[in-house]
Amino acid sequence: MEEPATRIDWIGNSCRLLKATAAELKRTRPFAGLSIGTGIHLEPKTAALLMTLRAGGARLICTGNLNSTQPATVEFLRAHGVTVFATQTTDPVAHAKSLEAVVAEKPDLLLDNGGDLFAIAADKPYANLLGGTEETTSGRTRLLPMREKLAMPILVINDSPIKQFAENRHAVGQSLFESYMRFTNRSTNGKRVTVFGYGACGKGTATAFRNAFSTVSVVDIDPVTRLEAHLDGFVTPLREQAIRSADVIATVTGFPNIVTAADLTLIKDGAILMNGGHFPHEIDVAAFRSHPDIVDIDRYEADDIETFHLKDGRSFHVLGGGHMANLAGPRPLGNSVESMDLGFTLQARCLERVAKRGVGAESCLVPVPADIDAMVASAYLDLAR
Ligand SMILES: NC(=O)c1ccc[n+]([C@@H]2O[C@H](COP(=O)([O-])OP(=O)(O)OC[C@H]3O[C@@H](n4cnc5c(N)ncnc54)[C@H](O)[C@@H]3O)[C@@H](O)[C@H]2O)c1
Questions:
Q1: In the chain, which residues fall in CATH 3.40.50.1480?
Q2: Which of 162, 168, 195, 224 for a ligand 1 pocket mutation test, highest count of atoms within 8 Å of Cβ?
Q3: Relative orientation angle of helices 172-184 and 200-211, to the nearest 10 degrees
Q4: Strand partners, 84
Q5: Is residue 204 lining ligand 1, measured as CB closer than 6 Å?
Q6: Is 2 exposed, middle or buried (0-12, 13-18, 19+ CB in 10 A)?
Q7: Do the Cβ atoms of 64 and 85 come closer than 8 Å?
Q8: Is 252 near ligand 1, meaning CB less than 6 Å away?
Q9: CATH code for the structural domain at 7-152+336-384
Q10: What does the CA dihedral 239, 241, 242, 245 come to, rounded to 10 degrees?
C-alpha cells in the first residue's frame, strides 16, 4: 500500500510558484558546486523552499530558529540528503551551538532569519562566503552596525513591497481571523472588534474582521494613520471607548504594553483578547495573572485559552497566552501558503542573484532588487490566470 501523503507533501504541492521555480532551477543549476547555510524555521513551508534550492544544485546545511523546529520536517530534510543541525529547543545555548555548527561548515551563501548566521560570520569571517539573504527587518537592524565587516551582498526580503502586502497586510489579517475562529469556534457576525495598530498587519486584520460582518474600530497612536483608517471606513474612537465597547481586541503594533492591567476596569464582560504582534508583550497577561482584582482564572489548557474572572463579576478571555495567535493554540497554521510561496520565491531568486555574482558588496543589507520583485509578481500572476 502507498504511504499516505503528508502535510509536507500538501504544502510542497501548494507552493506553485516554488514548484515552477524548482523546475527551472533544476535546468539552470545556479547553485551547482555551492553550499547554502540556512537558519530559518524548519517547518513544511521552509522545506518547500529548501527543496527548491536543492533542485538548483545547492548543498544545504540547515538549522532552525528557537522553539519552532518541527521534527517531521527535520526527518524529511535528512531523508533528502540535507545536513541538519537542529533540535526542537527553547534553550538559546543549545540553539547557538546549532548556528555555530552551520557557519563552521563555511557555506558559500547564507539564508538568515534574524541575523544569527551573518553575525557569527562577521566575527569569524571566511573567504568563500559570497553573501546571501536576510528574511526580517529586525535582522537588518541587527546587522547594520556590522556592515563594514560584512561587506558582501545581503538582500533583505522583508523590505520587498510584495512581502509587505502579500504577507503582512493580507496573510496576517486572514491568519489572525482564522485563529480567532479556530481557538474560540465563535462567530464574528455583529461583534465589535477593536484592532490596535493600523500598520500593514493591522490593516489586514481590521479588513478580515469587517469582511466577516464585525463592526471594527481602530486605535493607532499616529493621527495620520488614524485618518487613513477613518477614510478606509473604520471607526476611530478614543482608546478608552474602543476598549469598553470591544467584544474582541486584537493587538498588532509591535510595541509592548498596549493593553495592560490598568485597562481591567474598561474591558467588557466576555471580551476576547488576542495578539498578532511578534512578541508576547502587547497584552500584559502576566500582570493580569497576578492582579488583586482577578479572583479566579480558568485555564483551558488544550485550547490555550485563559478566562480571567474579575471581582466585580465580569470575565474576559486571552488566547494563546498573548503569543502571536496565528502561531499558537491547537494546530497553528501560520500565514497562508500563497503568501509564503511568494516570500520564499523572492528568497530563492535573491540567492540565485548572489550566487551568479549579479550584485556586489554595495548591496549589503539592501531591499530585494526591483527586477526580482517584478519577475516574481509576473510569475505569480501567470500562474493565477
Ligand atoms: N503574526 C504574524 O504572522 C506576523 C507577521 C508579520 C509581522 N508581524 C508583527 O506584527 C507587528 C506589526 O507589524 P506591522 O508590519 O503592521 O508594523 P507597522 O510598523 O507597519 O505598524 C504598527 C502600527 O502600530 C501603531 N502603534 C504603535 N504603538 C501603538 C500604540 N501604543 N497604540 C496603538 N497603535 C500603536 C503604529 O503607529 C503603526 O501604525 C510586528 O510586531 C510584526 O513583527 C506578525
A1: 7-152+336-384
A2: 168
A3: 50
A4: 62
A5: no
A6: exposed
A7: no
A8: yes
A9: 3.40.50.1480
A10: 160
Between the CA of 36 and the centroid of ligand 1 the distance, in Å, is 31
Q: What is the CA radius of gyration of the chain?
A: 22
Q: Which residue bears the cell 566575527?
A: 123
Q: Which residues pair with 9 in a beta bridge?
A: none
d(CA 138, CA 273): 26
For residue 199 and ligand 1, the question of a CB distance below 6 A is answered with: yes
User: 278, 323, 335, 337: which to mutate for ligand 1, most atoms within 8 A of CB?
Assistant: 278
> From first to last of its 385 residues, what are the pLDDT tens digits of the chain?
577 899 999 999 999 999 999 999 999 999 999 999 999 988 899 999 999 999 999 999 999 877 678 889 999 999 999 999 987 777 788 889 999 999 999 999 999 999 999 999 999 999 999 999 999 888 999 999 999 999 999 999 999 999 999 999 999 999 999 999 999 999 999 999 999 999 999 999 999 999 999 999 999 999 999 999 999 999 999 999 999 999 999 999 989 999 999 999 999 999 999 999 988 899 999 999 999 999 999 999 999 999 999 999 999 999 999 999 998 889 888 899 999 999 999 999 999 999 999 999 999 999 999 999 999 999 999 999 8
Q: Structurally, what CATH architecture does the domain formed by 165-327 represent?
A: 3-Layer(aba) Sandwich (3.40)
Query: Does residue 90 sit in helix, strand or coil?
Result: coil
Distance 220 CA to ligand 1 centre (A): 10
Reference 252, options 272, 224, 281, 229; nearest CA is 281
Mutate to test the pocket of ligand 1, among 220, 275, 319, 342 (most ligand atoms within 8 A of CB): 220
Q: Are strands 154-156 and 192-196 parallel, antiparallel or unpaired?
A: unpaired
* Runs of H (alpha helix) within 151-238: 161-162, 172-184, 200-211, 223-231
Ligand 1 midpoint to CA 199 (Å): 6
How far is the first Cα of the chain from the last one, in angstroms, to the nearest whole number?
37
